[in-house]
Structure formats: C-alpha cells, structure tokens
Specification:
Largest sheet: 5 strands, mixed
CATH superfamily of the largest domain: Conserved hypothetical protein from pyrococcus furiosus pfu- 392566-001, ParB domain
CATH class of the largest domain: Alpha Beta
Radius of gyration: 27 Å
Strand order of the largest sheet: 1-5-3-4-2
Structural class: alpha/beta
Strand content: 5-15%
Number of domains: 2
Length: 300
C-alpha cells in the first residue's frame, strides 16, 4: 500500500470519503439515478433500495435507544444523512449510519437523505470500522474484534492499524489482548458486567481457570477496578519462604478443605494442621469492605 494512500486513511473517515484516488469508480451509470460527482451532495434514497453493510462491526443495538431516535425522526425528520455506496442503478449498500437507518425504518420513512460514495470491499470495512470507533459506539470486545479483522483482512500491522484509527500502538495492543480471555469473560465485557479495566487486571493471570474464578468474584461482589487489581496481585504473590525449609506436604484431605474454603470465601485460604490435629485457618482480606464481606459469609 502506498504512503500516500496510508496517510489519507490515517486522516479519518472524511478523508476516506473524499479521496478520489482511493475509490473504485463505478462505470455503470443510469441517467435517472442520483449523481455521485459531487461528494458533498445529499440525495434522497428509498429505504427499500438500501442493504445493510456486511462489514458492520457493531452487533448490539439498544432497542430503547432506537425507539427514542425513531420518535425524534418522526418529529424532526432525519437530520444527519447516512452514507451508502452504489451497487447498481437502484441498489445501495450502507457504509455508515446503520443506527439511523434502523430508526428511520421504525419511524415509517420510505426514503432518507444520503451521501453516495463508491468504494471497494477493503475501503468499506475500513470506513465502517473507523466511523464506529471514532463515534465510540462499540463496546471493548467489538472494538477488539474490529481491530483483529482489519489486521487479518487488510493485512495491516498494529502500528499501521493505529494510524488508521488515530490510536497509539499500546492502545491497539490492549484491545487485542482482550480476545485472549475466556469466552465467558469476553461476554461480560461485551454486556457491560465488567469494564475493560477489570478485564486488563484479569489478563495478568495466566491460568484461564483463575481468570474465570476471579471474574465471577468481581461480578458477585461488585469489585472496583482497583480492588480487582489488588485481588489479582495478592493471588500472584508467592508464599514467603522461611529458613529455606521445604514446606511440609499437604494431605489430600487438607487440600480439599482449603479449596472448598477458597471457593466459599472467594479468596485464598491456608489451612495448617499439626501431627496432633491442631492448627490454624488463615483467610486474607484486602480491605475493610472485603473483611466485611467475609464476615457476612461467616454470618458474624
């Protein structure tokens, strides 16, 4: 890909839509179809002639928000035009504005104002991704999937991808790392049960089983990102060695009790039992709130 093309894409959606060197000219033209010679002109297009964008990275649409937008469109009309590309004389494909497109259908409109562009499939994908990412309409997992798709389908390096979406490489990397989490954790990020900050803390745990265990604890206890970071840090802390003595082997029965208690209290529990049957139980806590949680479980 030439440097000139890369720079144009890096300027954002407006540069993509107006850069005549980066679009594929549509040779077929019918006299009664809307003109596309002026990239700033707005045309009225029938909704029935528009198909949705197969490259749309956004998968979740808030139905209540769509209904509210539809009510606004009924009163005011569609103020902001959508953007489409022409497929044939009376067939168009959505580039950006699917939320407005859906709400216009709900509002009962038969036609909408639109900018008409020409673009190939790679530009369609980049336009849809950039339009959504710049508007912050995607959740973190959708952004991560969109980044991954651009890397794979557009053959981009992470640094080049950062240029496209106006984000530094570390930000792109952090999003892509979310896709290493177990599916259940990714779903919680997608659905807003935990934040990207929670997910980043869980990523410091290498064991997927631990990630799932602490993920459930975060949701159950409503932990903040800071509390989650402390919890994960404590889980990774190696046991303190004293006098270089090897720890005494733990019997299966003791290990089973430790595991059951750890599951009950959602934290590490250490059980020490002497040969005489005496011993102690250690239950660490991270804060006063965490202590209160443990005491509540103990019905203190």
């Amino acid at each position: 890909m030439s440097t000139e093309k890369r720079n144009a894409l890096g300027r954002g959606l407006s540069a993509l839509l107006n850069d005549s060197e980066n679009v594929q000219q549509n040779k077929s033209h019918v006299s009664n179809a809307p003109e596309v010679n002026n990239p700033g002109s707005v045309n009225e297009i029938k909704l029935a002639e528009i198909e949705t964008n197969p490259f749309q990275p956004r998968t979740d649409f808030d139905q209540q928000a769509l209904a509210e937008l539809a009510d606004s469109i009924k009163l005011q009309g569609l103020i902001q035009p959508i953007t489409v590309r022409r497929m044939s004389a009376h067939s168009y494909q959505l580039i950006s504005g699917e939320r407005r497109f859906r709400a216009s259908k709900l509002a009962g409109l038969t036609q909408v104002p639109a900018y008409i562009r020409t673009a190939n499939d790679q530009q369609m994908l980049e336009m849809a991704l950039i339009e959504n990412i710049q508007r912050e309409n995607l959740n973190a997992i959708e952004v991560a999937l969109s980044f991954q798709r651009m890397i794979e389908e557009c053959n981009l390096k992470q640094e080049e991808l950062g240029d496209r979406v106006s984000k530094n490489r570390s930000t792109v990397t952090n999003y892509l790392r979310l896709l290493r989490l177990p599916p259940a954790v990714q779903a919680s990020v997608r659905d807003g049960q935990i934040s990207m900050g929670h997910a980043k803390a869980l990523l410091t745990l290498e064991d997927p089983t631990q990630q799932i265990f602490y993920h459930q604890h975060i949701i159950k206890q409503g932990l903040s990102v800071r509390m989650t970071e402390d919890l994960v840090r404590n889980a990774q802390r190696p046991p303190v060695k004293k006098d270089d003595k090897k720890p005494e082997p733990v019997s299966f029965q003791v290990q089973k009790i430790q595991d059951d208690l750890a599951s009950k209290f959602s934290t590490r529990v250490k059980l020490k039992v002497s040969s005489q049957g005496k011993g102690t139980i250690e239950i660490p806590f991270l804060s006063q709130e965490d202590l209160g949680r443990i005491l509540e479980i103990m019905d203190w």
